[in-house]
Amino acid sequence: MSLRAIRGRLLTFLRAPQGAGDAQSYSYHHDGVVLVADGRVDALGPTAELMARIPPGTPIDHHPDALILPGFIDPHIHFPQTQVIASYGAQLLEWLEKYTFVEEQKFADPAHAARNAEFFLDELARNGTTTACAYCTAHPASAEALFSAAHKRNTGMIAGNSVMNRNAPPGLLAPAATAIADSRDLIRRWHGTGRQRYAVTPRFAITSTGDQLAALGALLKEFPTVLMQTHLDENVNEIAAIKNLFPDDASYTAVYARFGLLGPRSLMGHCIHLTDDEIALLRDTRSVAVFCPTSNLFIGSGLFDYQRLKTAGVRIALATDVGGGTSYSMLRTAAEAYKVMQLQGQNLPALAAFDLMTRGNAAALGLDGEIGTIAPGAFADLVVLDARATPAMAHRMEVARNLEEELFVLMTLGDDRAVRQTYIAGEPALNEERTSVALSSEIT
Ligand SMILES: [Zn+2]
User: Fold this and answer.
1) Separation of alpha carbons 44 and 111, rounded Å
2) How many CB atoms lie within 10 A of CB 91?
3) How far is the CA of 85 from the centre of ligand 1 (A)?
4) Distance 404 CA to ligand 1 centre (A)
5) pLDDT at site 70
6) By the 8 A CB rule, do 66 and 8 touch?
7) Span from the CA of 320 to the centroid of ligand 1 (angstroms)
8) In a 3-state reduction of DSSP, which class is residue 183?
């Protein structure tokens, strides 16, 4: 049996915080240890109690002063957009044509896909993200490259090839029958292979005919444990185009509902311009609205109304949406979520943000208990965070009074520099650990 002990300040969430200061929502050990056996959490607790139970010779990684949390989960990101991120001056439909579709066509080349898969997984690990739900391109080689690379690293990825049969360049289109055959083949090869899972992925209803969406709905029925990811109500011109393409449907959401694409494993990216009827459809089908703040601001799509959806009982997740999104960092993403909510008179307490990035996003993917938590039986996917990673952070931390304030400093000022180490199934994923710029006041 392979054993490792990881020691530091342990923080994991037990349920969604009711608001700022909800100390019942999490478990915290100021000096704690996670004992990892064969990639999963075997035990955790205060160092003073647990050390006696750790077999002699077990390697101990000690991260004094650092916070150890479950690894971040990014439930909406585009694997082929690592060279689309930071593309200037366009809103959604123009941005897709001008930048995205151009880059995505390069993934027909398996060598290009393989090189990008390694970069993508390295970059996620540098940012403390241990599971992501990724869009690939229409070429089966792209999903194949990502799954193969993730499987080798034993990191749990969810991915699917983006299915399109209209309104995109010919190199990215596949007729319904071919797209379904490709998706089915990838599901058989990868869904449940090691830690990998498949998500059926219509890009959005503009790029698929009703026939293709119906075939994807049937595929979900055939494989009920597979996830589904798509885009919904991101941009007003997109919604107008949907009205033209599907004139008989009451709404954009109703299009997906008609083809059997809503449900508890369905991740609907953006959900900015929803009507009350659409919100009711999402709630009743237990579909997930995925909040992508850096993307929504960058592409100028609009402000996600977190409170409206939460009050209505819609499940919510938080994601980067790279390359429309501008950072791989879930910390940067939480910072922008906070600002989007501030603009609407809402607040995102640090506890709620960190719960969302870990336990909350795991629950949105239906993987709670397996990831997003530090608990016996869960994969030991962990992020080690340093709230004093930069001079500005260390300086600010001199006056931080408690854990919640430290978390808020991390999400407001932090990025990949605050990630000291990332563990994937108990193994360190970063070659070099970063160190704090300065050690100052002790946080209790
Ligand atoms: Zn997206």
Assistant:
1) 42
2) 16
3) 12
4) 31
5) 98
6) yes
7) 9
8) helix
Distance (Å) of CA 418 to CA 62, 234, 422: 17, 31, 11
Quickly state the pLDDT bin for 176 (edges 50, 70, 90).
confident
CA of 302 to the centre of ligand 1 (A): 14
Cα 371 to ligand 1 centroid, rounded to whole Å: 23
Residue 437 in this model has a pLDDT that exceeds 90: no
Distance CA 426, CA 435 (A): 20
Place of tokens 């229409």: 138
How far is the centre of ligand 1, averaged over its atoms, from the C-alpha of 188 (Å)?
25
Nearest to 335 by CA among 348, 322, 324: 348
CA dist., res. 349 & res. 154, Å (int): 33
Q: Cis peptide before 45, with omega less than 30 degrees from 0?
A: no
For residues 393 and 418, is the Cβ–Cβ distance under 8 A? yes
DSSP letter for 153, please: H
Q: 350, 408 in Cβ contact below 8 A? A: yes
Contacts of 363 (CB under 8 A, 6+ apart): 315, 372
Q: Both tokens of residue 327?
A: 């950072």
pLDDT, tens digit, for every residue of 381-421? Answer: 999 999 999 999 999 999 999 999 999 999 999 999 999 99
CB 366 within 8 A of CB 265: yes
Q: Answer whether residue 441 shows pLDDT above 60.
A: no
Label the pairing between strands 197-202 and 227-232. Answer: parallel
Phi, psi of 135 (to 5 degrees): -85, 135
Tell me the CA–centroid distance for residue 97 and ligand 1, in Å: 14
Q: How far, in Å, from the CA of 346 to the mean position of ligand 1?
A: 24
Q: How many Å from the N-terminal Cα to the C-terminal Cα in the chain?
A: 35
**Residue 19: strand, helix, or coil:** coil
Strands (E), 307-416: 315-318, 382-385
CA 376 to chain centre: 23
CA 78 – ligand 1 centroid, Å: 6
**CA of 295 relative to ligand 1 center, distance in Å:** 8
